[in-house]
Design a protein that fits this description.
By secondary structure, the chain is of the alpha+beta class. The protein has one domain: Glutaredoxin (3-Layer(aba) Sandwich), CATH 3.40.30.10. The protein contains two helices and two strands. The protein has a two-stranded parallel ribbon with strand order 1-2. α1 links the parallel β1 and β2. It comes from Morella rubra.
Length: 50
């Protein structure tokens, strides 16, 4: 089961997480979030459990 990372690849915070996952050879899936359209403020995104 791959770790799901929500973010954008150009973000330094997301890049740091992806780098660590890659260094540890862990499977991950980047799920892009469209910040320009406000997807990060939608109920479906805000209701995700971490």
């Amino acid at each position: 089961m791959a770790i799901k990372v929500h973010g954008i690849a150009v973000s330094p915070y997301t890049a740091r997480v992806l780098l660590c996952l890659h260094e540890k050879s862990l499977d991950y899936e980047l799920l892009p979030v469209d910040l320009a359209s406000g997807a990060h403020k939608q109920h479906s995104y805000l209701s995700l459990e971490y």
